[in-house]
Amino acid sequence: MKNSRTLRYFGGLLILVFASVAHAAPKSDLWPFWNSSDEANTSQISHTNWQTLLDTYLVQDGEYTLFQYRNVSDASRKKLQNYIDTLSKLDPRTYSKAEQYAYWVNLYNAATVEIILEDYPVKSITKLGGLFSFGPWDQDVVSIAGKKLTLNDIEHRILRPIWQDPRTHYVVNCASLGCPNLLPQALTSANTEVSLESAAKAFINSEKGVSLKGKKLQLSSIYDWFAVDFGQSEQEILRHIQKYRTGGQLTDWSGKIKYDYDWSLNERR
Questions:
Q1: What residues contact residue 55 under an 8 Å CB cut-off, 6+ apart?
Q2: What are the domain boundaries of the chain?
Q3: Which one of 1, 56, 222, 243 is at 20 to 30 Å from 28 when CA atoms are compared?
Q4: Tens place of pLDDT for every residue, the chain, 269 residues?
Q5: Torsion angle defined by CA atoms of residues 238, 239, 244 and 248, in that order, rounded to the nearest 10 degrees
């Protein structure tokens, strides 16, 4: 009995160690293959099918947008898969950078929903991805231009290093309550700037983004995990936040900051 308890104890520790390593925030690491475009190409990529799914299954609940995973019909699931497949058959490098940005963000979000649906019901995306994985972010999800890509590739090797815009964190969604909301509108080259600004403002003025109560300041863990994207110091991060915050000055904050994140699934219960 004692040996059994010991094995369970060390087995649990091993899992925690692997989960901790897996959860270490990836660095922005450019994949040069994807860093090209054809700015002369004025054609647009259709995201109509993704918008239809958002209109059908995404609902507003307070400061959250929640996806109704349990209600997704077989026909809608097929439409989602066809949408992802259609995007995968394109070479985004042949489009303008503006079209590419919307392409990658929508693909990331659509692929994340598909990953959840593959294993639904699930309480958290962190439960997916294998025994020693903290989530499915290093799984191959799509093949484009002969290259297999993971969600981490899309976010950390393409979106972050190529565009170097901290607001990207506000529009890619990891199917969790603590994450910036899944956008109700599919991103397009025409609405990207408005969507980025709106998403930044919504997240920063939500309790899950920034919570200031008296002398206690709590920020989303994205400002800890990806601090380098928001500034070179704590004060620069706070200045970024203050740009979008509608109440309570933070730029002269000198107290301790607590970070938190809710990994519960972003579903309508």
A1: none
A2: 26-191
A3: 243
A4: 445 444 444 444 334 444 444 457 899 999 999 999 999 999 999 999 999 999 999 999 999 999 999 999 999 999 999 999 999 999 999 999 999 999 999 999 999 999 999 999 999 999 998 777 789 999 999 999 999 999 999 999 999 999 999 999 999 999 999 999 999 999 999 999 999 999 999 999 999 999 999 889 999 999 999 999 999 899 999 999 999 999 878 888 888 999 999 999 999 87
A5: 60
| Cβ–Cβ under 8 Å, residues 223 and 261 | no
Do residues 223 and 259 touch, judged by C-beta distance below 8 A?
A: yes
Instruction: Using DSSP bridges, classify how beta strands 58-61 and 147-150 pair: parallel, antiparallel or unpaired.
Output: unpaired
**Are the C-beta atoms of residues 226 and 25 closer than 8 Å to each other?**
yes
- Residue 100 corresponds to which amino acid? Q
Q: Which residues touch 196 (CB under 8 Å, ≥6 apart)?
A: 165, 167, 168, 170, 171
